[in-house]
Amino acid sequence: MRLTLIVTALLTLLSGGALHAGTVQSPDGRIVVTLDADGEGIPFYKVDRDGKPLIAKSNLGFNFTDDDPMRRNFEVVSQTTASRDTRWEQPWGERQFVADKHNELTVLFGEKDDAPRLLAVRLRVFDDGIGFRYEFPQQDHFVTARISEELTEFNIAEDGNAWWIQAGDWNRYEYLYTQTAVSAVSTAHTPITFRFADGTHMSLHEAALVDYSGMWLRRMQGTNFRAQLAPSPRGAKVVRDAPFHTPWRSIRVADGPAGLYESDLELNLNEPNALGDVSWFTPHKYIGIWWEMHLDQSSWASGEKHGATTENAIKHIDFAAEHGFRGVLIEGWNLGWDGNWFGNGREFNFTKAYPDFDIERVAQYAKSKGVRIIGHHETGGNIDVYEGQLRDAMALYERLGIDAVKSGYVADAGGIIAPDGNGGEMFVWHDGQEMARHHLKVVKEAAARKIAMNPHEPIKDTGLRRTYPNWVSREGARGAEYDAWAVPKNQPDHVPTMVWTRMLSGPMDYTSGVFSLEGRGAEGPDIPSTLARQLAFYVVIYSPIQMVADLPENLAKYPRALDFVKRVPADWSETKLLDGAIGEYAVLARKDRNSNNWYMGGVTDENARTVSIDLRFLESGQSYTATIWRDGESADGLGADRHAMKVETLSVSSAQTLDIDMARAGGFAVEIAAR
Ligand code: NOJ
Ligand code: CA
């Protein structure tokens, strides 16, 4: 590791006052960022790449509910630079080792005033993008920041294509993506992804969202965006005492789709592992008492249709044991589902099971079969009730040997019930400061008991899995549940869009593997997918926990498909995006963390297509056996025959190209086993 630190504060004294802040460039010299204060004293940054503007002059600053804005009248007080060239290891992930090579510039701005307030901006420039954050130092004239808005701009230098979902709407992050011109976006969640005329790909997001509100992006005019923090009922969107810093604002940039997907920018901007040895978490696949509720064949609530019975749990444990799936998720096991839980969660009890679910016996039976129950905490969006029971809830699971928990926050956006600090309730957003705090509270409580967390209806992923590697997955997008009951179901371009949007942020519990390809009958046509595409999801959509969602009887009906799902790993040493275009198709290859085998997955949109895959990523001189699960001749993900699938085996080497056809809404999966 090379670490250089040049403190230039001395220059301030020599120059007798304000400094002009500098520029800093990426290690490869292609990205150049300027950070300075303009003639009006407005702090700003701008980004050039290959000598061409990428982000034009963009202002920085804050408004407060109880203080003057920090917006103009600043000068540069001091600046420091540093650089780093290192790599670190992930306990689990898309790749084992992550390279962190960047140059850093920190500029301290101070007001030109008798009682100057101070604000620093720390900027890191990597070959694949930049990150910057604000730092509020301890100071005499500013104690508590009550932030009404962050004024960070992203003034994108040219128009292009954008893929995004709306922010500030009722359904949190669970939308189909919209593709528009950059100049036609309204208010978007991050990651938001852009492609420009010369093929440059860029995405805007954030890293290490800790004790702060999530950042939405509001287009002001043309292609200029400004941060809009998720609201809070307190008025101020963020309340923090100095010293503190904000999350990193991140800008990924790459020449094409592979570079954008393969970037580790946000992980690099997060703090290292704070938990130490986390080998107690095992990446795995799981089945569940789950899809049957979404099909309305059984219920979360008690009564005749109750899904989480002892008998049904035993049936699932037997299936998991027979097929080698580590986990069995059981939803609807605990008291509270009978009432109006959606959006209020007042009745949930996280330690008491329904009388027809013998939790002790089920846990004991699972243990005897070498299977783990996956716990479930649906909160109905009531964190007041959940936090009140959190310790006992986690203690119960720890005692029963349950080491992974799915949680849920089913409430409309803005409808999370949180304690108001005075014994009452307040209604907060899924991505406000209160929820950023809540999720980490749960993750830390779980980590203390060696339990992994997988929240649904979560706050977005900003790479905190690096610091808290028991935060293993989450939902945070439109998952496979929509194929059960939504109109429309997830469309063929949804997953090929998510690869370069939602999936840039981190692992997703999409809950793949619906082999029947049928949702609830009355809710419109069946799932637009071939059978082979369902298999592709296990490679294309990364998560260290992967659900095999369909009913056991449906899984058993398709033994060749089940065979792939049994074989595919959930933990990788390398990941490559081999081919694709946003919203059209994606082909990925990943290397098993525990063997020399590679796995590939491909998905296409509503167009059938053939991909030619160059296998040069394989080790040269090594021979491999490729087993390919592909769409059959008659397969059509939008037509009558969605199940036709061919399974072929052939010898391959790194010198070859593999041509694979995909049907409309189709896909493929490949295992490449080293011989
Ligand atoms: C929504 C989640 O996404 C889904 O997986 C779960 O089954 C329900 N909430 C009930 O908790
Ligand atoms: Ca959901």
Q: Estimate the strand proportion.
A: 35-45%
Quote the CATH topology of the largest domain: Beta-galactosidase, Chain A, domain 5
Distinct small molecules:
1-deoxynojirimycin, calcium ion
Number of strands: 38
Q: Flag low-confidence runs.
A: 1-17
Cα-to-Cα separation, first versus last residue: 37 Å
Tally of individual domains: 3
Calculate Rg over CA atoms.
Answer: 25 Å
- The geometry reads as globular
Q: Pairing-aware structural class of the strands and helices?
A: alpha+beta
The main sheet comes to: 11 strands, antiparallel
Helical fraction: 10-25%
Q: For this structure, what is the CATH class of the largest domain?
A: Mainly Beta
- CATH-level-2 architecture of the largest domain: Distorted Sandwich
Count of individual helical segments:
14
Mean of residue pLDDT values: 96
Structure description:
With 675 residues, this protein is an alpha+beta fold. The chain has 3 domains: 3-268, Beta-galactosidase, Chain A, domain 5 (Distorted Sandwich); 274-476, TIM Barrel, CATH 3.20.20; 493-519 and 527-544 and 555-675, TIM Barrel (Alpha-Beta Barrel). It is built from 14 helices and 38 strands. The strands form 7 sheets. Strands 1, 7, 8, 9, 10, 13, 14, 16, 17, 21 and 22 form an 11-stranded antiparallel sheet that branches. The protein has an 8-stranded antiparallel sheet with strand order 2-3-4-5-12-19-18-15, with no helix packed on it. Strands 29-26-25-24-23-30 form a 6-stranded parallel sheet. Helix 5 (310-323) runs parallel beside helix 6 and helix 7 (383-400) runs parallel beside helix 8. The model is unreliable at 1-17 (pLDDT under 50). It binds 1-deoxynojirimycin and calcium ion (CA). 1-deoxynojirimycin binds at residues 290, 331, 378, 408, 410, 456, 475, 481.
